[in-house]
UniProtKB/TrEMBL annotation, chain A:
This is Tr-type G domain-containing protein. Keywords: Chloroplast, Cytoplasm, GTP-binding, Methylation, Nucleotide-binding, Plastid. Belongs to the TRAFAC class translation factor GTPase superfamily. Classic translation factor GTPase family. EF-Tu/EF-1A subfamily. Its main location: cytoplasm. It is found in: Cytoplasm. Coiled coil: none annotated. This protein promotes the GTP-dependent binding of aminoacyl-tRNA to the A-site of ribosomes during protein biosynthesis. GO terms for molecular function: GTP binding; GTPase activity. GO terms for cellular component: cytoplasm.
Automatic annotation (TrEMBL), chain B:
The keyword Nucleus does not apply. This is Protein pelota homolog. It comes from Ceratopteris richardii (Triangle waterfern). GO terms for molecular function: metal ion binding. GO terms for biological process: nonfunctional rRNA decay; nuclear-transcribed mRNA catabolic process, no-go decay; nuclear-transcribed mRNA catabolic process, non-stop decay; ribosome disassembly; RNA surveillance.
Length: 483, 378
């Protein structure tokens, strides 16, 4: 009798559905999010935090100088030791890429160094007086935009790096031949992730002799585009600088030609940004950016930004889309062990009790009582970018959401929206053209774990791409079918 | 496909005797055999017999049967066609009117008798028996962690293998894991290529994808070929082409087929023509939307006004249709051809054909814009 009682007690805690039918069964949607009550320890220490955490995405056209700028900044702020810097300089010169020595702080793989470009998002950290900043250095090359989307989706603010050299800025805006350059594409994508604060760093000013005219010309040219994307004037900061010559990065410019500039340095501009809002009051969600093994955290480690809620060592989490339960074994932030992480933190989480094969990039770790099943048919509201060709029923695209990407088909064009966002009735939709807003239905090849935008902003933003171009950006209005 | 006997009149009854030679012929056969036709082939039938001792015994008997087709099933994986129908000939083992399923596979001759041999059927037959049309193009779509090995034939694109692995990060302490994982991934792709690509049939091997993974694979393939003495790869070095594509997914295949470096190799294949035609349609749709239409009713109206310049159809329309609908599409095709227009029949097994199928399977580029089609309530 005693044993029977014990067994029943044990069974009460086990979620039988997830144990026996992994993945493919019809899961009922998650309970409403407002029933979630965050635990005390999640909120309590919030006030004790001395510095706010800020995720900064660095975006811009290829060769604008993003990695060099960040490498230089990290070096000046003491994040890179003199010995390491000497090593990079020496090695870079040996491979004939002397000018890339600072970029090598972030581009660590031999492939990236040999080709002189960033391929995946590099993560580094530094401090300003107000913030602890996590830098997400994105690739600028056209082929690696999917990687850039993965990194930039975690951003709270962004630095758009512009190459001031004659011709280079224009190429970034107009593109070489087909389609727009990455300056425009990155800006639109970053805005679609909900980023409202932008620091425009006009780099390589040394090549144009720190000309005020050139700086203003770039500003005039870019301003209407940024406004069109949805950035408010108050959210943009314009900073001329030169990463190579170390002008206006951390200290006021010393070069005589730049005396016309009286504004803040890059560091001051970053410090003046608004801290982001932390969603601690929502159930735990961590979109999986990377999966790897580590000596300290074990065989199954995931890393990503906690978009909501919090976990500590010992917490139980659910790995979606496979639906397997796991326990948090260890947590690391920037190489340092910690006992818990909250919304807004970027962390490496070591898991116990799960086979690493269940972990997929694009999956999500979530609170066991508020699971996030994979959706197989979505209704989304999108804005077609100006570079997009016509989109029809049956068009094949790749849908990106946080770190997930899947080939998908547009199954239905529901309605066209006017400027105010109202559906235009009785309009027969044959196809969608550039700059239009519409509601459409998208069916990914495999399920994607995401949320409706109204429930959870960070997991409800999507972008549609094909043939190397971003066609549309939008939000998930409704999940029609689950896998 | 080998044609052994032919006896028919255009739009009249007739009979052909065919022997499929390669897997793609199954697809042609699938498009030829329609409900109501009569198909004869040798087959195995389980017959119940009573032996002298009184017990019932089931015996497998080889016999030649002719059936009236009721359903056709195409098995892509096994490359076999299964046709179900009622027996129409007198046979000592099978009663008249009994149901039987005939299996058609490679090297099994069959005879097909139709009541009406329309222009589409005759065209399909012509394509099937064309000896020059057997060569194929092999393509490896590769991006980091994902690869597809596909064979693009005249009418059928088959995905032979999909390789997917999770590749860990490239920086920090786990960087050693990256090298190991990527080598394992490239090895798997190489094995898939060795197993599924027959260099004696294939015209060329295209390696396509974004970024540098394709170059990585190319280098890996050749260094392993020299190390392990893989003659197949070393001898066919000239057949291997590297092309840039925006992603490693299957639908990026159409970008590959329209790339200039690949175009001259595959110019005369049906696949390339289809991709080109569909691209023209989409270009017209974005430049002059009133001259590009899709949907059966719209196309009918446009045809009544003699506005069609190029007609795009998916072969699905001919396959699943009942006789009056099929007749309608055949008439449409013939009439567009006779009025000087172009007709492209897309194979639904190709990437571009799938896309056309999603658009209702029928589309057209017009000679002049038809603005009122937009406003008409169809």
């Amino acid at each position: 009798m005693e044993m029977l009682n014990q067994a029943t007690e044990k069974l009460k805690g086990v979620d039988i559905k997830t144990e026996t039918e992994k993945g493919k069964h019809r899961r009922e949607p998650c309970p409403p999010l407002d029933t979630y009550e965050p635990e005390e320890w999640m909120l309590e220490t919030f006030k004790q935090e001395s510095k706010q955490l800020l995720h900064l995405a660095i975006v811009g056209h290829v060769d604008a100088g993003k990695s060099t700028l960040m490498g230089r900044l990290l070096h000046i702020l003491g994040q890179v030791s003199k010995k390491e810097m000497h090593k990079y300089e020496r090695e870079a010169k040996q491979s004939g890429k002397g000018s890339f020595s600072y970029a090598w702080v972030l581009d660590e793989s031999s492939e990236e160094r040999a080709r002189g470009i960033t391929m995946t998002v590099a993560v580094a950290q530094f401090e300003t007086p107000k913030f602890h900043i996590v830098v997400l250095d994105s690739p600028g090359h056209k082929d690696f935009v999917p990687n850039m989307i993965s990194g930039a989706s975690q951003a709270d603010a962004a630095v758009l790096v512009i190459d001031a050299c004659t011709g280079a800025f224009e190429a970034g805006m107009e593109g070489e031949g087909q389609g727009v350059g990455q300056t425009k594409e990155h800006t639109q994508l970053v805005r679609s992730f909900g980023v409202e604060q932008l620091v425009v760093a006009v780099n390589k000013m040394d090549a144009v002799e720190y000309s005020e005219d050139r700086f203003n010309a770039i500003k005039t040219s870019l301003r209407p585009f940024l406004k069109h994307c949805g950035f408010k004037e108050s959210g943009i900061r314009w900073i001329p600088l030169s990463a190579m010559e170390n002008e206006n990065l951390v200290t006021q410019p010393v070069n005589g030609q730049m005396l016309w500039y009286r504004g803040p340095t890059l560091l001051q501009a970053l410090d003046s940004l608004e801290p982001p809002v932390r969603n601690v009051a929502k159930p735990f969600r961590l979109p999986i950016a990377e999966i790897f093994k580590s000596r300290t955290l074990g065989q199954a480690v995931v890393s990503g930004k906690v978009e909501g809620g919090a976990v500590k060592i010992g917490s139980k989490v659910l790995v979606m889309p496979s639906g397997v339960s796991a326990t948090v074994k260890g947590i690391e932030q920037n190489g340092k062990t910690c006992t818990f992480v909250r919304a807004g933190d970027n962390a490496d989480v070591g898991l116990q009790g799960v086979d690493p094969a269940c972990l997929l990039q694009g999956g999500v770790l979530c609170h066991p009582d508020y699971p996030l099943p994979a959706a197989s048919l979505l209704e989304v509201k999108v804005l077609l970018l100006e570079t997009s060709g016509p989109l029809l029923r049956g068009s094949q695209v790749i849908i990106h959401c946080h770190h997930a990407k899947e080939p998908a088909k547009i199954t239905k064009l529901v309605s066209l929206l006017d400027q105010k966002g109202q559906a235009i009735p009785n309009k027969k939709l044959r196809c969608l053209l550039a700059n239009q807003r519409a509601v459409i239905e998208v069916k990914p090849e495999r399920g994607i774990c995401l949320e409706e935008y109204s429930r959870y902003k960070a997991l409800g933003r999507i972008s549609l791409r094909d043939a190397g171009k971003t066609l549309a950006v939008g939000i998930v209005t409704r999940i029609i079918e689950y896998e | 496909m080998k044609l052994r006997h032919r006896d028919y009149i255009l739009n009249g009854p007739g009979v052909v005797k065919l022997t499929p030679e390669n897997p793609e012929d199954m697809w042609y056969a699938y498009n030829l055999i329609a409900v109501g036709d009569r198909l004869a082939a040798s087959t195995i039938r389980k017959v119940q017999r009573e032996t002298s001792s009184g017990t019932r015994e089931a015996e497998r008997v080889h016999t030649r049967l002719e059936i009236e087709v009721e359903a056709v099933d195409y098995d892509n994986v096994a490359n076999v066609l299964r046709i179900r129908g009622k027996n129409v000939t007198e046979n000592e083992h099978v009663k008249l009117g009994a149901y039987h399923t005939l299996e058609i596979d490679q090297q099994r001759p069959f005879s097909l008798s139709k009541d009406i041999w329309d222009s589409i059927a005759i065209d399909t037959l012509k394509w099937a028996c064309d000896p020059a049309a057997t060569s194929e193009v092999a393509a490896v779509m590769i991006q980091e962690g994902l690869a597809y090995v596909c064979l693009v034939g005249q009418s059928v694109t088959t995905t032979k293998m999909k390789i997917e692995t999770s590749i860990p990060r490239k920086h920090g302490p786990a960087i050693a894991g990256y090298e190991k994982a990527i080598n394992k991934f490239l090895e798997n792709v190489l094995q898939a290529v060795l197993r599924h690509v027959d260099f004696s049939i294939v015209r060329c091997l295209i390696i396509a994808g974004p970024g540098f993974t394709k170059d990585q694979f190319h280098n890996y393939m050749f260094s392993e070929a020299t190390k392990r003495e893989l003659r197949v790869i070393i001898e066919n070095k000239s057949k291997i082409v590297l092309v840039h594509a925006s992603s490693g997914y299957k639908h990026a295949l159409k970008e590959v087929l329209s790339a200039p470096s690949v175009m001259n190799l595959i110019m005369d294949t049906k696949a390339a023509k289809e991709v080109k035609a569909l691209k023209e349609f989409f270009d017209m749709l974005s430049n002059d939307p009133l001259r590009a239409i899709y949907g059966p009713k719209e196309v009918e109206i446009a045809h009544d006004r003699l506005a069609i310049q190029t007609l795009l159809l998916s072969d699905e329309l001919f396959r699943n249709a009942d006789i009056p609908t099929r007749r309608k599409y055949v008439d449409l095709t013939d009439s567009v051809k006779s009025s000087g227009g172009d007709v492209h029949i897309f194979s639904s097994m190709h990437v571009s054909g799938e896309q056309l199928g999603q658009l209702s399977g029928i589309a057209a580029i017009l000679r002049f814009p038809l603005p009122d089609l937009e406003d008409m309530d169809l």
